[in-house]
Amino acid sequence: MNEALNVHRLHFAFTITFHYIFPQLTMGLALLLVYLKTKALRTGDEHYNRAARFWARIFGINFALGVVTGIPMEFQFGTNWAAFSKTAGGVIGQTLAMEGVFSFFLESSFLGLFLFGEKKLGRVGHWWAAFLVWLGSWLSGFLIVATDAWMQHPVAYRMGANGEIELASFWGLLLNKWAIWQYAHTMLGAVQTGCFVMAAVGAFYLLTNRHEVYGRTFVKGGVLVGVVAAVLQLAPSGDAQGKMIAQNQPVTLAAMEGLFETQEGAPLAILGQPDVKNRKLDNPLVIPKMLSFLTYQKWGANVRGLEAFPQDEWPDQIALLYFSYHLMVGLGTIFIAVMVVAAFLLWRGKLYESRWMLWILMIGVPLPYIANTAGWMTAELGRQPWLIYGLMRTAQGVSPRVVAGNAWFTLIGFMGMYTVLGILWLFLIYREIEEGPGPDEGDSRIEARISVTAD
Amino acid sequence: MGTIWFCLVAIMIAMYVLLDGFDLGAGAIHLLVAKTDLERRQVLASIGPVWDGNEVWLIAAGGTLYFAFPALYASGFSGFYLPLMMVLWLLILRGSSLEFRNHVKSAVWDPFWDFLFCASSILLAVFFGAALANVVRGVPLDATGYFFEPLWTNFQLGEETGILDWYTILVGVLALLALVMHGALWVQLKTSGAVNDRAKRLAGHVWWGVVALTAIVTAVTFQVQPQVKENFVTWPLGFVLPLLAVAGLAGVAFELRKHEERKAFFASCAYLAGMLTSVVFGVYPMVLPARNPVYSLTVNGAKAGAYGLKVGVIWWIVGMILAAGYFTFVYRSFAGKVEVESDSNGHSY
Description:
The complex is a heterodimer.
Chain A: H1 2-43, H2 46-79, H3 82-116, H4 118-152, E1 157-159, E2 165-167, H5 170-174, H6 177-207, H7 212-248, H8 250-257, E3 263-264, E4 268-275, E5 280-287, H9 290-296, E6 302-303, H10 318-347, H11 355-363, H12 366-383, E7 386-388, E8 392-393, H13 404-435, H14 445-454
Antiparallel strand pairs in A: 1-2, 3-6, 4-5, 7-8
Helix pairs in contact in A: 1-2, 1-4, 1-6, 1-13, 2-3, 2-13, 3-4, 4-6, 6-7, 6-11, 6-12, 7-8, 7-10, 10-12
Chain B: H1 2-28, H2 30-33, H3 37-47, H4 51-68, H5 70-79, H6 81-100, H7 109-137, H8 166-190, H9 193-224, H10 226-234, H11 240-257, H12 261-283, E1 286-288, E2 297-298, H13 299-302, H14 306-333
Antiparallel strand pairs in B: 1-2
């Protein structure tokens, strides 16, 4: 049974981690596409429409991969986590069903129109298509985060006669305060991925002296939106998230921070490796009293360490949780520094000539992906050993009849298939970037392609 | 309230079959009706802007099933673990081939994705038919409310069934033929020239197979699942549903002969809707029949809490009105025959 549990966990972790590579860019880019289309509409400059078309092609590839890797996520609640679904389906089924009914229909319908219907829709109509794709993808994000937030912080429920959990308040579920802050934090993370990708492509064009007009548009758009998102990510969204964890999941906070002993004036660990067996942090580099201050706004506040909690309530992967959290926070700090400096250079009119900054923007592109992944790992590992915090343990949630062998079989299948998909994704995105948004004046690439076929 | 949700989920599944059915069918006949690159792009363009939205019906229906009948979702999805995972893989392959094909122009790239698109569409049609047949036939549920079906046992309808036995394979083949017909009728509606001719001829040929298998499967089903007969005897009004299917099937042949392209496609929709609703009507009030009828999951045994189901009706209606609006708008925007001559992107503008 234990082996099956671990394989089922790995199964979900692997498929969701791979899946989330795509939606974070989709949601971020959707906002930037609205930005470009708004610019086009307001200035009447066809340049922005061509820029939007270029990003729409990348968006399309990315969206398709998000869809095909997303369907397995919904299925897995039933296939691999049947006991959980049976118990909690009446609550989390609400948000998942609403995601299909409200956001996926909206998103897929208007993406088709956005990608294939620009001529038919006209300028204003096409702006609306972009806007509705954005709305659909952000609504989808909210409903998924609300689902996870309920598992982190169950509210608005009551226990049914046979031990199943029933919904008690629809708005209570949707307006869960955990959901609101987690949503803000998640979406800001997605926007940063979108901004870093757009700025990186722009920087690549500027550094290689190609498509320079577009390069400037992309760098500017990425940096302008990115600096706002990076700062808001720290405060209020990250700060509020941290305080909620301190209040509702204190044992998680202790594990994230690598704090084994309860102490007044607890230090904030910057570096160090948790030694869970001996309950200490190796090679620590700490800021004294900082954790107490950040958590309770008092330098001398008492912060409970892991020792204050029974060991069977500790998250089961403390070291991984600790590193995920530290990676996320560290990268988030770097993003603020990079974006603030880039925005300053942009303001001074020096960004497009500052090759060192363009280099940083270009090679920084994997970092937001890592930070977003690490952030989700912090949330999900931090919730352990609970599947629904305080109500149901992860071990109680797996499908009772699906043995480890079958779970391994499908996990290996997904690994193989996703490896191929990942390679294809990189290849196709690289081709689009290589081909570029087309010449700045004259025909778009689509029209250029027509003349090629006509020959 | 349980029965209402039983009907709503059935409607969503029927919508999925009608809509994604035609693009699955178009995929299944892709290599058969389209020979040149231009022709293949015609077929792809006929479903390009809509297939993704069609597939959303599967996700939305799945989500709604989850929310309305959590115990069914848990039991059914974990019991059909292996075939569902394979369905997921096929959906991934199919979605990727549709998306990736037109990004690279090469003598080895396009044919590869065309083949994959065709093969995954065929297999999906068979799998969906077999899945439906598994539900009708019943599964080895026990007192715990769970089961796990291997892919096959001895291909017989005993106590310990597998996903595949002679009955489910038979229904799988019927599903393939029905969707091939449905897809061919869509393709003839949306295309012109050689593709249109071939699709029409194919639909006409396959029609005979659909008629024959529909008759056989119907006769066998009454033996396999006694509840079906019982329900039709108890509520004779239910005969409207199989009549709709028969009328639809007759309509396909009739309209094809008259070259009424649009009416022929809608007749096929009526056939599929009639068949599906007949099945659903036949198994009610069970949502998942067991081989041993004592353990069958029923509407009342599987439904979620009363409050959740009640609020659900409100947002479901709002959501469906919106979705109907989007679909009408999208299908109107892409109405008429596809034109691919002037475009190498695989999509009509």
